[in-house]
């Protein structure tokens, strides 16, 4: 569902207000691959290719969205960027430093610049720690803090996320879901990071609370010049939060575009299907946006089909799609991996006719 981009007082916030980004990429990911061994037969190991040749960059102050169905590889991509799962190939550069080839003190120093906000505020907080201990944990792991520094840091972070000072002595079970996520956000801010990876940060919350948390993230981004890698399956959230969007399917990016291009003129059949499933309160838009159903199930990730990975579910696939895997191509504003996008008939019309 579309989420109103309102501030804490309920006033609407213009999404275009945070569209401007700088020219310097903070994060650069090149040809990232993640694979998991799923067995072996006659001495030959079998792998599940969770992420395959994924490349993108994020400018300072920008929000890049990764979207797709469950199993598309978006969360695994983020975990690999954060060094929480091992990458099999590729490079990840954060502010000029190679994340995949650093270790020890260098890696700990880089973790100051990058933090994670997890999906479930119920399971991502240690139930045995008080809220103040949860928030300070990233800092105390890096060195002992004086009592005065701890007090000052806690008060500052609690105020930043809209929590009261007297709540710092409470345990996680004494907070609501939205308040727990605010604790998670405060914890992510503790090291003054430049990049925050938001993994479905509002999917476990009620719709009314989602709006508050989303606008908190937008405000913090504006105040602290934060950069977000934002993972979501909810395109309504993505439309209001992200400057650019990468659509993933079976471990690969199939479309990459700025927000306006993706939502106004989607190119890939998979993107069309995802957008057609988003409810709209706009009657004209709803009538024009005919639901596009994706038949069947995703292919076996261990035995992927030849050609396009979407071919078995695509309603407009042709022989070339079964034989040749498409590559991302297009303009700086929009790139798509689809053989049929070069045809004179728009993809939307091909889908409608099909």
Summed up, what is this model?
The chain has 354 residues and is an alpha/beta fold. It has 12 helices and 12 strands.
**What's the β-strand tally?**
12
Percent of residues in beta strands: 15-25%
Major β-sheet, in short? 8 strands, mixed
Widest beta sheet: strand line-up: 6-7-8-3-9-10-12-11
CATH architecture of the largest domain: 3-Layer(aba) Sandwich
Q: Any idea of the CATH topology of the largest domain?
A: Rossmann fold
Task: Calculate Rg over CA atoms.
Answer: 21 Å
Q: Please trace the helix and strand order, writing H or E for each element.
A: EEEHEEHEHHHEHEHEEHHHHEEH
Q: What is the terminal separation in angstroms?
A: 27 Å
Quaternary organisation of the protein chains: single chain
CATH C-level label of the largest domain? Alpha Beta
The best one-word shape is: globular
| Alpha-beta content class | alpha/beta
Instruction: Enumerate how many helices there are, as a single number.
Output: 12
Provide the helix percentage.
25-40%
Return the domain count: 2
Return residue spans where pLDDT drops below 50 for at least 5 consecutive residues.
Answer: 1-22, 281-288
What does the average pLDDT come to? 87
């Amino acid at each position: 569902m579309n989420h109103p981009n309102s501030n804490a007082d309920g006033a609407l916030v213009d999404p275009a207000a945070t569209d401007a980004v700088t020219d310097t990429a903070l994060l650069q990911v090149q040809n990232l691959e993640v694979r998991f061994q799923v067995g072996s037969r006659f001495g030959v190991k079998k792998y599940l290719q969770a992420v395959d040749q994924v490349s993108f960059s994020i400018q300072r102050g920008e929000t890049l969205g990764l979207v797709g169905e469950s199993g598309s590889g978006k969360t695994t991509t983020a975990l690999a960027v954060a060094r929480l799962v091992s990458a099999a190939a590729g490079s990840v550069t954060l502010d000029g430093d190679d994340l995949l080839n650093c270790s020890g003190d260098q890696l700990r120093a880089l973790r100051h610049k990058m933090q994670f906000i997890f999906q479930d505020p119920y399971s991502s907080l240690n139930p045995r720690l008080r809220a103040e201990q949860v928030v300070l944990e990233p800092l105390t792991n890096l060195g002992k803090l004086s009592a005065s520094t701890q007090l000052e840091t806690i008060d500052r972070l609690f105020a930043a996320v809209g929590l009261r000072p007297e709540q710092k002595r409470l345990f996680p079970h004494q907070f609501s879901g939205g308040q727990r996520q605010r604790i998670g956000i405060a914890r992510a801010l503790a090291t003054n990071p430049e990049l925050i990876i938001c993994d479905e940060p509002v999917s476990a919350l009620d719709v009314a609370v989602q709006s508050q948390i989303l606008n908190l993230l937008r405000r913090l981004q504006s105040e602290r010049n934060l950069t977000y890698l934002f993972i979501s399956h909810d395109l309504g959230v993505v439309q209001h939060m992200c400057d650019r969007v990468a659509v993933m399917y079976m471990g690969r990016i199939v479309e990459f575009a700025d927000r306006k291009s993706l939502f106004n003129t989607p190119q890939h059949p998979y993107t069309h299907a995802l957008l057609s499933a988003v409810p709209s309160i706009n009657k004209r838009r709803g009538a024009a946006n005919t639901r596009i159903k994706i038949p069947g199930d995703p292919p076996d990730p261990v035995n992927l089909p030849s050609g396009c990975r979407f071919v078995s579910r695509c309603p407009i696939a042709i022989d070339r799609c079964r034989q040749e895997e498409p590559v991302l191509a297009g303009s700086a504003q929009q790139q798509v991996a689809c053989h049929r996008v070069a045809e004179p008939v728009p993809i939307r019309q091909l889908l409608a006719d099909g």
